[in-house]
Amino acid sequence: MKQFLAGWVGVFTLSGCGMDPDGKQDLQGWDSAVVIDTADQEAESDPDGESGDDDAPDDTSEGGSDSTPPGDPDEESPSDSGEDSSSDSDDSVTPEEGTSVEPDEALTFSRVVLSTKRGSAWLTPIDIDSDGYDEYLLTSMTEGLGVSIPPIGPGGAYVMSRSLTSSPGEVGTWELTKAFDYWDGIVWPNKSTVFDINNDGIDDWVIGCGFLARPEGNLLWMEGEIIGGVLRFGPPQFIDIPDSSRWYHEALPVDMDGDGDMDFVTTNHNKTIFEEGTARVEWYENNGMPGEASLTRHEIAEGGGALLTLFDVDEDGDQDIILPQFFEGESLVWLEQTGLSSPWIRHVINDDTGRGFGVEMADMNGDGRLDLVYGNHNHQLSSVPDEQIMGIYWWEIPPADVVRSLSDWGATMQVVYEGFEVGSDDVDAEGAPGVVHTGDVNGDGRMDVSASGDGDDGVYVFVQQTDGTFIENRIDGSLTMAGDHVMTDLDEDGDMDFIWAVFGPTGFLGPDSAVYAYIQD
Residue 495 class from Cβ within 10 Å (0-12 exposed, 13-18 middle, 19+ buried)? Predict the structure, then answer.
């Protein structure tokens, strides 16, 4: 989770300064996806050198970047290769020796490079042109050097879409349409959500910003507008927050007060790499002003600070909050809503799985009811026993008449997988697993679980068997900080593939990142 910090400190020692705007071409010119500036939707490639073709040459080294480093004009760039990225699908990656997968049960995937945008980390699917095919909102957490300590520069946000020249049944070529980038100075954009925040009937793009390495938090939004049947987004605008030292991972939309407009729930923290902090959970009430993002902040409770989800746990008709806790407190809790003017009540789900990280809802046992899927973020060398096991778990939601009285949900806890391993010995700088999602990867009607290793160098899908156990499929290895991902049938052949953002190792001028497609063979 925090491996990049060591790399950035090393970069600062070598360079001692941030990037000058005159170096724009060098900073961004090796990103292997066409970048279109939304300021000129009709323009061709960016004259400053932002453009390139994401049809990367054969990706022969796992986790590497096909990008051309700046200052090396003799090296052929991906844009010069003239190859279709669909031809870059012969790099088959199979589960590695020593996993629990039997040969006849293994799922194999071929890896294709879609983009090498620096800092790629978070993906949100959205069909912006209503053609039945998703585009992806891609956020890049940092795209180069900055002048801070550590010297982590600003990030960017893009709409990643398949080119119109792509043929059905192929992965095709991809391009990035810029919403904002390094030169807009927005620090550490995280996960995107899409909802109508300004009450004009059109969805907007909302991003939480900041992290402990750059604790300069923001919540921003970009106004949606339908142009020629396509959802476009305006320039970034900032939501008023009382404390910019607090940083945010995401804003989850919900009509909390039942008045017909979209509010949102978020959690934030003000920890830095130099000192401890505190976590808070808040909801922002939409004041219902037509055409305006007018919001009133309400503090719910202390706690959280990482990711979260919303669900009516006690079946009383309102949304409760399920909250992993990475920084302090119990591993996983839920906050019971008892009324907008009443205090929320904290209940413990689990407190023996170490540092909580991510959670989502899925029907894991096929009974028609949503269950809770959760991943922690630990290290095998931790001095705290509960933080030595790295795993993914799921629970059935207890019956409504007893869920409030339970001290924990241990009776229904199921293990998807335990056994990740972090390569670095630095307990404070690394952890696993990372982002966890669910879906039916092999079409057998049972819910499977996909996971980024993060500090573990793999990406995984755990395939559910008829007896409810899971078989490990290590899709790829030798990766650095694999992040968010989406399961989708990308090549339209009837089975599920993945799009995966991989932050990558930190190089001299920033992270060597990639967005990969893993096409199921």
Answer: middle
DSSP 190-212: EEEEEE-SSSSSS-EEEEEEEET
The pair of three-digit structure tokens given for residue 319, joined into one six-digit string: 């949304």
Angstrom distance (rounded) from CA 373 to CA 397 = 10
- Distance CA(404)–CA(511), nearest Å, equals 45
For residues 222 and 236, the answer to whether their CB atoms sit within 8 Å is yes
Helix (H/G/I), strand (E/B), else coil: 447: coil
Q: Are 160 and 189 in contact (CB under 8 A)?
A: no
Q: Can you tell me the distance from the alpha carbon of 193 to that of 186, in angstroms, rounded to the nearest whole number?
A: 17
205 vs 234: CA distance, rounded Å: 9
The pTM of this model reads 0.84
DSSP 478-518: S-SSEEEEEEE-TT-SSS-EEEEEE---EETTEE--EEEEE
Q: What is the DSSP letter of 462?
A: E
Q: Tell the residue number behind the tokens 């968010």, with chain if given.
A: 484
pLDDT in the model for residue 91: 56
Residue 366 per-residue DSSP state: S
* Alpha-carbon gap, residue 286 to 268, rounded angstroms: 19
* Contact (Cβ atoms closer than 8 angstroms) between residue 323 and residue 302: no
Token pair for 470: 């899971």
Series of mean pLDDT values for 10-residue runs along the chain (521 residues) = 42 30 37 56 38 37 33 32 36 47 73 97 97 96 86 95 77 95 96 98 97 87 98 98 94 97 97 89 98 98 93 98 96 96 97 97 98 98 97 97 96 97 92 98 97 98 98 97 97 95 91 97 94
